[in-house]
Amino acid sequence: MDPIEPAEPVDAIFAIKDAAYLEHGTAADRWTRAGLFFDAKEYGTAARLLEGLTGEAPEQLASRLLLARAYYHSAQLTRAERELRSILERWPVEDYAQLMLGRTLERQGRAAEARPYLRIAAAMAGEFPE
Q1: How open is the CA angle 57-12-78, to the nearest 5 degrees?
Q2: Which of 22, 60, 64, 127 has the fewest CB within 10 Å, making it most exposed?
Q3: What string of pLDDT tens digits covers the 130 residues of the chain?
Q4: Contact, 79 vs 71, CB < 8 A?
């Protein structure tokens, strides 16, 4: 006898439930949940939550920086770079974004391109070469 096939693939069912969970609640609820996932080192899940939040409120720097960090830690370096460049277009004096962009470029093997961002971040932090 053949086993009974589920009506929908199991992965599709979990994806639907997962999406509903990620979109559930207020923006504040989802921000808290994203922070919990990030702290638990579930960076991919945190990024998926934060993508929705940043889409709803692109003017919120904190969620965009956390999204870039989640991308970085989940090795989504192209996405991290794109988000950080977008942040720096809007907030060019954001020293942490300068530092993160430099580190992201270094991690991609683009040290020469990273150098100016790292120097700017160091200068903004008051770290000057002797």
Answers
A1: 45
A2: 127
A3: 444 544 444 444 445 446 667 777 899 999 999 999 999 999 999 999 999 999 999 999 999 999 999 999 999 999 999 999 999 999 999 999 999 999 999 999 999 999 999 999 999 988 766 5
A4: yes
Helix (H) or strand (E) holding 49: helix 43-56
CA distance 96 to 108: 18
What is the token pair recorded at 6?
């589920």
**Encoded tokens for 93:** 């004096």
| Contact criterion met (CB below 8 Å) for 104 and 80 | yes
73's tokens: 């830690």
How many CB atoms within 10 Å of residue 26? 8
